[in-house]
Amino acid sequence: MMDRPVRIFLMVLGLAALNAKAQTTVVMGTVTDAVDRKGLLGAGVRSVKEGRAVIADAKGKYIIQVSPGSNLEFSCLGYTAILKALSNPSKKDTVILNISLARKAYELPLVNVSAEPKVDTVIGNWRFYVEDYEFFGDKYILLTWEKRLSKSKLMLADGEQKIISSVAVIGEAQSLYKDFLGRIYVKCREGVQRVSIGADNSLALISIDEKEFNTLIEPCIDTIRENLYFSTYRGDMPRFDYYAYDRKADTFRIISHITDAPLERMHNFEYEFLKPADKVLARKMARDYHMDKRDVAAAMTGFAQTHYFTPLYAPLFVIHDTVHVFDHYRNTLYKYDRSHHLVDSVSVDYHHPKNWREWKRKLIKDEAEGTVYALFQKEGYYYLKRIDTGTGKVVATYKLSYRYLDRIRIKNSQAYYVYRPFESLQTKYLYREPLPAN
Question: Which are the contacts of 43, defined by CB distance < 8 A and separation ≥ 6?
């Protein structure tokens, strides 16, 4: 039988637990704008003591359970946060606490606090995250998710943030892709789906053969009338070619050969490291698959996965019926006419900054105007440097307003990107920031 002191001790513990539970307080109320008194959708309410947080609904209403002595922080994007001590002298189980938040002098992300250009929210909704996007005329195709990408949706939205239609993505989505004809695809871990947009703006997804996509669609870059431009690029090789295919004459022609010469020498030397038996196997596989034995050897040794290997980057853009090849390995911009004749070449050096890590190995073409920008990053901020394709020189530099942006694209001299403020309750929004003429 349990001793009397032990029973008393356990009773005291039980009463203490019940008392602690009884002291829990439910706080509820409404978070409003201090001027128009309208409820603030997406306002955050956080218990500083416990770290528990909730988000207000469309009318600004919230409900949160806290312990005595808690301080509640009320915040909303574009408003000054308020820290409120919970006062409950009568020990009520429920406390009503209505809060009004004042607008900041500068709203973020709608207006920059500096003299830099205005940043607009293109698509922003606290119910879902924008993972990726593509332009579709004056509308936007959005890849979105609520809790995880394996349960994502494709949405069609207009310029007024109205969601016109949506469809569930089958599989774990990764990104969107637009081909040379303007068709949009969803690339998933399990395969590829093409986006179909009906006359009524309804969305549908059609599964396509992944091998066909990888061999016949993704390598194609652009067209000029009867000419189709494509590459033999592979991420594990130190060389590739750009081809022009004349669809009328059904003929192919190499227009540019890209190679990283030092990397290619290292790649080719992998064959010499093989043991005699492996060299025999490499030669046999090369004969069977019509490949170079040195390429087979590099694949056998996994050279492309070593820290010595860097994938090639030398993009081709069609601008006003002229083919531009930015050969960063020859430090030259080559220009070809639609008959594939070399008409001009200029030297480039923007990709050799003093701090080589700042160059992000990416050029972005304005989808509407054809202007080309080089992407750099310094201290978390992205910089766009506009390249004059006539001289190959940088003629303007733009610093984007926020750090650690994603999915940067340019259209009509405006930079678009996906961004979520650091340590914010906000989801990932799609923003637009003008690039001023200078």
Answer: 31, 55, 56, 60, 62, 74, 75, 76, 79, 101
Q: Count CA within 13 A, CB hemisphere, residue 76.
A: 23
The whole-angstrom separation of Cα 97 and Cα 348 is 62
Please answer whether residues 130 and 155 qualify as being in contact, where contact means their C-beta atoms are separated by less than 8 angstroms: no
Burial class (CB in 10 A: 0-12, 13-18, 19+), 152: buried
User: Residue 4: what residue type?
Assistant: R
Distance CA 436, CA 438 (A): 6
Q: Which of 183, 135, 118 is nearest to 411 (CA)?
A: 135
Report the alpha-carbon distance of residue 291 to residue 284 in Å, rounded. Answer: 10
Amino acid sitting at position 210: E
Cα(233)–Cα(258) distance, integer angstroms:
9
Sheet containing strand 251-259, edge to edge, reads 220-224, 227-231, 239-246, 251-259
Q: Which residues are CB-neighbours of 282 under 8 A, at least 6 positions away?
A: 271, 274, 293, 296, 297, 300
CA distance 161 to 340: 43
85 sits in which H/E element: strand 82-85
Concatenating the DSSP letter of every residue in 210-229 gives HHHIIIIITTEEEEETTEEE
Minimal CA–CA distance to 82: which of 44, 138, 133?
Answer: 44
Domains of the chain: 4-101 (2.60.40.1120)
pLDDT tens-digit readout, 154-186: 999 998 999 999 999 999 999 999 998 899 999
How many Cβ atoms are within 10 Å of 240's Cβ, its own excluded? 17
**What 3-state class would DSSP assign to 134?**
strand
pLDDT tens column, 60-113: 898 888 887 788 888 887 788 888 887 765 566 788 889 999 987 544 343 333
What tens digit of pLDDT does each residue of 337-392 get?
988 899 999 999 999 998 888 999 999 999 999 999 999 999 999 999 999 999 99
Kindly report whether the global pTM for this prediction surpasses the value 0.85. Answer: no
Q: What's the pLDDT score for residue 416?
A: 97
Instruction: Report how far apart the first and last C-alpha atoms of the chain are (Å, whole number).
Output: 90
